[in-house]
Amino acid sequence: MIVRRFIFSVLLTFFRAWCIIFMEICFVGVCSMKFGNIMRHLSLVIRHKNKVLVHCAKCGILWRGLMHDMSKFSPVEFFESARYYQGNYSPIVACRRERGRSLAWLHHKGRNRHHIEYWLDPECKEPPMMPYKFAVECVCDKLAATKTYRGRDYKPEDALAHWERSGKKVDGNPRTMKFVEVVFRDLAEHGEKYILNKKYMKATYKRICLDGE
After folding, report:
1. What's the predicted TM-score (pTM) here?
2. Residue 139: enclosing H or E segment and its boundaries?
3. How far is CA 138 from CA 15, 103, 152, in A?
4. How far apart (Å, rounded) are the C-alpha atoms in residues 202 and 186?
5. Helices 91-99/75-83 angle, 10° precision
6. What does the pLDDT look like over 38-87, one tens digit per residue?
7. Apex CA 45: angle with CA 102 and CA 65, to 5°?
């Protein structure tokens, strides 16, 4: 029953996305967006989701991998990202540089609990700690994004470099932030097989987030 519901939701999401793409081409016009960018962005999203799915499956959170980033097929996220498609870095960054904000990102971070930004609350003295399954999905997502954008140039230390350069700018829960950093440091030192498994993730999350090492 759960599998059937999931398949139906995926098919419905894709059907809605393609209907919107058709309407965009017919009624808005190709001058507002290159059709090639639509296809390239769709391909990039699918490749990214596939990588996240593989990572999550190895870590024992298959369902999170299946449901990962479904909001990217919503109109507000899909069309902005297609319009600002870059290929080697996030279209959200390109949109911010041109327009000063990204509606796709504002929509995305508020609907996806694997993003550290989802858990930020200015009314809290300290941001809530990210629950285990979302913290692991966060790692899988960042690793997959690094692989997707780096392509053949990807190296295990790239995820840590990106985290040091961009990820640590977020004022997230200290334990959540430390968990992600420790995992990426272990990735750089020991390799992917060492970290992408349920035993490692459970032990590392418990040691850092629950026991407060």
Report:
1. 0.84
2. helix 132-150
3. 27, 21, 22
4. 14
5. 80
6. 889 999 999 999 999 999 999 999 999 999 999 999 989 999 999 999 98
7. 105
